[in-house]
């Protein structure tokens, strides 16, 4: 009788264990769908909060915090300058939580975006601090994962938006976007892992021609 | 078997009984307004919601039992409540605002902050470098802000009816005794310090903090940078000067050191641009500085900064009391300045800032009365007997300062501390020594209390004792800031300020007391993206000013007032790539001091002063352009002569209006080329271009001893030109200039 009970118990444990990760996957997938369809800052706030709840409940998963922060950066790009600092601080708090669990290129990519948002408030006087932070974050991201296309995509965007006279421009950006697009093509993201940016990078590359 | 069945039953029932419970409610702030975007979380579950535009939220959960429901939102304190999930729950939250440095108001009455601090920035440190006509001089750039007079015949900031010596400069908290190079009378000199070594500058035109004292009108607070961005070597070449500098940042980015040397000689320049005075010794300057900075374990810093300067000049001017004679003035000046500070986080909200500083300045001046062949002539009668003299002035200032800060409620602070200055001043006039020493002590304290993010109060005071005055004084200070709308705030400031009389008054009469000023300031400021509008009104009274009488008598019976209104507008947004600011000051001031027979407007005060500063960077040409136009109505001038036992005004008038247009252009050929090994900037500027078109500046008039001859005080040349090339290896400094203009 005993082995039977044991096997039942084991299967129960397995079921609940499976249920647990299944629940996580389901919640993440649902929220990722919401993130993809979010259009307004209200939508983005709601989905960022939802990701943060998952992160707080799980405690050992960096992805929910990553996506919560990613949603905040999306809000940051849209916000008026007067609110950008506050949004970036919220993003930074989430990034810190994610980084405490795992240090990786995706998280440094977020750091780049958050610093860029803060720089945009007043590029004139903030270039030296936030511009440098953004640059360092990108370098760190490339160092941690040289095959990750997203840091290259962001670098391409930064060069694309810099006037030619100052070392930017289409020609220089093109080479970077080409590298990003090539990396996107070979990328095989694990389920739930970030995979954004391919279409955008291809679109930008088309603009460079 | 029984156990198994229970287990199975319970397993199934949980699945079957996955009934949902609805949780709904409202989130409001302390004033009853909805909090939008608050995150509602059922603790340790995935379930929750985000409040909508009315503050309402609702969600369903399959969880059972008692749970903690959490509401959190940016800039609010997180709140929790226990809920029982046996049936539908209605949970309402009332959230209190969190004190937040980013959102809190700051007192802006009387104060202009510059630098990369997050708020209230009026002028960035880089603005100083790119303001036309300022020639990278901090004081000259500050003169384009409201409150400062366009005084060109003396160095210093003449603020709101105050004389130049009523403004004091501080580096990292300690006083700078000689902030300007020594020079000849009636020719203003530059400041000693390069703007690039400071990360922040606060120019307070009144009502400043209790942390500082001994300045009746104004303080300029300079905060040195912590660590440079990267190691670099800089070279500057110009017909006027050459410079060599390096900054070395340690690999671990925890310490740095640097040094620089520059030599300026105006010989070549004076050959190209004729000067009114006859220079027999062309001005030359040796200037060296050194620094180190160490980051401590807890994020504090130990910083040293020191400069050594030697400069000399000699010039002759037409003597005012005779027709063919000349007055020669010769100067040798040494200055050595040292500043060592330690700022540290002590934990649990405590911070400390310690500083010591030592400076010594020696000016060696010779006056000669000369004939047409430049030979010294001695005439024993007044006024000619005063025209040959040897004068030495040595001023040593030793300081120690300790400041502590306790932070609570995340943004409210209490600060207190003490400072000590030892002043040693030895004057030698024609081989006769006189000595003045002073031990000055001050205790200060200030509380910054935030009642909400929208309302901040500052109250403080300082007690001072000077051994030469032999008296204590107490100077209370208070300020308030209140947000009246989005980006709009009102602030008020009040304060009493004491200052020891200048040493040249204390030498003949060491029994003088403190001079005193009281400030009342009201300020309104509105900031929107890319624009800043600021208006300020003030009233100031002066008491116990030093009055001098014929024969060596003086006392503290002088008094005066100043009142006015000022306007500042900066706009970086309306026109692309174009940045401009406008300032205007109205000033009504009179004082009865020194040898004034009655209350009169002093000769450094103009009623209306205005400046317009324009900046534009043309990307296609990789060139930046700047223009600064300053205007001031005429200033009064007087001839005050002794008549029996009294002084009396024998002649007076007003100078013509002051106009000054400065232009600057800088070409940055390597802009953005991150692969170039050498970065360079070519700068060309001209100050007072209107001088060429007959708009000569007149600062006032000198009178002969008998009062019959009157000579205008004018700049030594109609214009000032500068051309130079600055090269840098290491960090691309051109980025600074480029981004400053994007």
Write up this protein:
The complex is a heterodimer of chains A (209) and B (742). With 209 residues, chain A is mostly helical. Chain A folds into two domains: 37-145; 147-209, no CATH class. Chain A is built from nine helices and no strands. Chain A has helices spanning 2-37, 41-58, 63-78, 81-101, 105-121, 123-144, 149-160, 170-186, 198-208. Chain B has 742 residues and is mainly beta. In chain B, 6% of the residues lie in helices and 56% in strands. The chains are: A mainly alpha (209), B mainly beta (742). Chains A and B meet through helix 1, helix 2, helix 4 and helix 6 of A and helix 1, strand 3 and helix 6 of B.
**Total DSSP helices of chain A:** 9
Helix content, binned percent of chain A? over 70%
CATH architecture of the largest domain in chain B, by name, is Beta Barrel
Order of helices and strands of chain A: HHHHHHHHH
Q: What are the main properties of this structure?
A:
heterodimer, A: 209 residues, mainly alpha, 2 domains, B: 742 residues, mainly beta, Immunoglobulin-like, Maltoporin, Chain A, 22-stranded antiparallel β-barrel, six-stranded mixed beta sheet, 6 helices, 40 strands, 6% helix, disordered C terminus
Please specify the SSE layout and strand pairing.
The complex is a heterodimer of chains A (209) and B (742).
Chain A: H1 2-37, H2 41-58, H3 63-78, H4 81-101, H5 105-121, H6 123-144, H7 149-160, H8 170-186, H9 198-208
Helix pairs in contact in A: 1-2, 2-3, 3-4, 3-5, 4-5, 5-6, 6-7, 7-8, 7-9, 8-9
Chain B: H1 2-16, E1 21-29, E2 39-42, E3 48-50, E4 56-61, E5 66-72, E6 79-84, E7 89-90, E8 93-95, E9 111-115, E10 121-123, H2 125-130, H3 138-142, E11 167-171, E12 174-176, E13 198-204, E14 218-224, E15 232-237, E16 241-249, E17 255-265, H4 267-272, E18 278-295, E19 301-318, E20 326-347, E21 350-370, E22 389-408, E23 412-429, E24 432-452, E25 455-466, E26 471-485, E27 488-499, H5 503-506, E28 515-528, E29 531-549, E30 553-571, E31 578-592, E32 608-618, E33 623-632, E34 636-643, E35 646-654, E36 658-667, E37 679-687, E38 700-703, E39 710-713, E40 720-729, H6 734-740
Parallel strand pairs in B: 1-7, 1-8, 9-10, 11-14
Antiparallel strand pairs in B: 1-4, 2-3, 2-5, 5-6, 9-13, 11-12, 13-14, 15-16, 15-40, 16-17, 17-18, 18-19, 19-20, 20-21, 21-22, 22-23, 23-24, 24-25, 25-26, 26-27, 27-28, 28-29, 29-30, 30-31, 31-32, 32-33, 33-36, 34-35, 36-37, 37-40, 38-39
